Amino acid sequence: MLLRNAKDKINHSEITPKETFLNRRKIILSSSFFLPGYLSGKFLGNNVNAATSKNNEKTLRYSKGYSKLNSDDTLNSKIDITTYNNFYEFGTSKNDPSEKSQDFKAFPWTVDVGGLCLNPRKIDLREYIKDIDLEERIYRLRCVEAWSMVIPWIGIPLSKLLKQFEPVGSAKYIQFETVYRPKEMPGQRSRRILPWPYIEGLRLDEAMNDLTFLAFGLYGELLPNQNGAPIRLVIPWKYGFKSIKSIVKITFTKEEPLNTWKRMAPREYGFFANVNPNVDHPRWSQSRERRIGEFFRRPTLMFNGYAEEVGHMYSGMDLNKFY
Ligand code: MTE
Predict the structure, then answer these.
(1) Higher per-residue confidence, 49 vs 59
(2) Which residues make Cβ contacts (< 8 Å) with residue 213, sequence separation at least 6?
(3) Is the pLDDT of residue 259 over 90?
(4) What is the rounded average pLDDT of the residues 49-70?
(5) Whose CA is nearest to atom 6 of ligand 1?
(6) What Å distances lie between residue 37 and 134, 144, 191, 226, CA to CA?
(7) Domain annotation for the chain: domains and CATH numbers
(8) Closest by alpha carbon to 241, among 276, 278, 204, 198?
């Protein structure tokens, strides 16, 4: 982003052939439940099935949720999704997160939820995930660097979690914070990359919108470290940098939080950062994008194709301006 142009290339030998992932997509889309387990079913309670735990210790149980794909959308392969990443806590190259995150320990994990709410408390993620109904949402992810992917996430709408903390009337925004563990995250050992911890924010109505998703997994399994284990946001109509990874703190606030990229370069990265083909980044066009795995660029869609679901939240805003 700020530090590099979007020149990183994925090695084509690492990309699953199209037939293979189309086939995989059929399998996934046709099964309403994925079975199996984590640590013989004890780890995530009802959300796992111990029967196949010897084959796969990370697979989740979930139902199919909302997925509005266009006819030209194809699920990206697991290899694409887990080797072409942005997670500067592990380094700035696309392959750093998958290659340098082996020492990261995703569990046990606590999320501290507080600020302007009636019921602040810490949640033990293992306990929390145990009995909730997980769903799969297949969303387009559009990075501000003008590449995109289609990813099958597993999780819950963020609103489901937030409601339990009973935000008060003065709560207008929410701030999210990534874990700070320089011993396990080599990128955090240098403050020249970004000021740590990584911070993001949403307006309360954006956070409560049904599309805003809290992901614990992808492709039917717990999140790999490089994709933001064990808990991350997915906000499909905003540039990818809003989808903060490895969250440890959630705070209801009165003022708009200062998100990390806006703090670093306020003329290049905004707070709202809604995907918008009409507003270019100062250093490159946003009118087209490269879908990972495809050769030709395709047009970028307003709100990344989710205008029907989210456009009403920005009715007072001029869509030709940078926010
Ligand atoms: N969250 C943290 N904590 N650190 C990061 O560097 N990168 C963001 C976002 N969340 C980032 C982050 C960016 S720029 C993008 S495009 C997405 O994560 C990429 O998610 P993915 O690697 O799972 O595709």
Answers:
(1) 59
(2) 137, 139, 153, 155, 156, 157, 158, 233, 234, 235, 236
(3) yes
(4) 72
(5) 87
(6) 14, 35, 39, 21
(7) 6-321 (3.90.420.10)
(8) 198
| Strand pairing report for 147-157 and 135-142 | antiparallel
Lowest-confidence segment of 18-32, 160-174, 197-211 by average pLDDT:
18-32
φ/ψ (deg, to 5) at 55: -85, -35
- Ligand 1 center to residue 231 CA distance, Å? 12
Q: Which residue's CA lies nearest to atom 4 of ligand 1?
A: 87
What is the 52 CA–ligand 1 centroid distance (Å)?
A: 31
Asked if residue 82 has its Cβ within 6 Å of ligand 1, the reply is no
Pairing of strands 147-157, 213-218: antiparallel
Q: What percent of the chain has pLDDT over 90?
A: 80
pLDDT value, residue 6: 38
Measured distance CA(262)–CA(258) in Å, rounded: 7
Ligand 1 centroid distance, CA of 93 (Å):
12
Q: What is the CA(135)–ligand 1 centre distance, in A?
A: 21
User: Whose CA is closest to 247, among 145, 141, 113?
Assistant: 113
What sign does the dihedral 312-314-317-318 (CA atoms) show? negative
Residue 274 CB less than 6 A away from ligand 1: no
- Give 32: exposed, middle or buried? Use CB within 10 Å, 0-12, 13-18, 19+: exposed
Q: What is the pLDDT of residues 6-54, one digit of tens each?
A: 334 333 333 343 443 333 333 333 333 333 333 334 456 666 543 333 4
Per-position b or e across 100-124, b if 16+ CB within 10 A of its CB = bbeebebeebebebebbbeeeeebe
Cα distances (angstroms) measured from residue 45 to each of 51, 154, 155: 13, 16, 15
User: Distance between CA 208 and CA 252 in Å, rounded?
Assistant: 12
- Read off the pLDDT band of 5 (50, 70, 90): very low
Q: Tell me, in angstroms, the distance from the centre of ligand 1 to residue 300's CA.
A: 19
